[in-house]
């Protein structure tokens, strides 16, 4: 963020310096009727135009960079929690919404055993499958850590979510067949039409609870006891 600001400031200061130089040289050329000063002013005017173009291009490039930083996850490249919050805020009919939440299983053990680089690979691979499965069906985002969120809208939102879950399973199964470290995940589903008068946040909470229940069912009694302690 600071680098973007510094680049912009340097270009802007240089542009202001050239503009001041044009005014000074043009004034001197007018006072002394010096042709070489007029030529210098014309040259500086050309430099100013080039700087304007560079500044405009830099602004567009930095805006794109800042936009991606704000709304897309840096590790996976898919929409971030901020994008998800904005999307949720625009959902006006909770009854026509279905939510799927997925969370990777055993990521801490992977990180502790093989390193965070391996864990990041699993997160990126899962994010790709998650986003690809949601394509043309709904909205998908990384909700933070190893948790992912998918939102489906419309009268057929539950059916869309069902198709999504099947596509995600098939994609992860294919990926696991050719990878050294398999991906395991827990998943939860909730639909507004099954939860009377529920808000979008409540639907998400219900999907999250379903996901957590499935995750707990995969753990051994000792793991569950350790977590409680």
Brief sketch in words of this structure:
The chain is α+β, with helices and mostly antiparallel strands and 229 residues long.
Give a verbal description of the structure.
The protein has about 230 residues and is of the alpha+beta class. It has two domains: about 1-70; about 80-229, Alpha-Beta Plaits, CATH 3.30.70. About 65% of the residues lie in helices and about 10% in strands. The chain is built from eight helices and four strands; from the N terminus they run αααβααββαβαα. It has helices spanning about 1-30, 35-70, 80-90, 105-115, 115-135, 155-175, 200-220, 220-229; strands at about 95-105, 140-145, 145-155, 185-190. A four-stranded antiparallel β-sheet has the order 2-3-1-4, with helices on both faces. The radius of gyration is 27 Å and the shape is globular. It starts with a helix and ends with a helix. Mean pLDDT is about 80; it is low at about 220-229.
CATH superfamily of the largest domain: Reverse transcriptase/Diguanylate cyclase domain
The largest pleated sheet is described as: 4 strands, antiparallel
- Helices, by number, come to 8
Low-confidence blocks of residues? 221-229
Radius of gyration: 27 Å
CATH topology of the largest domain: Alpha-Beta Plaits
How much of the sequence lies in strands comes to 5-15%
CATH class of the largest domain: Alpha Beta
Order of helices and strands: HHHEHHEEHEHH
Strand order of the largest sheet: 2-3-1-4
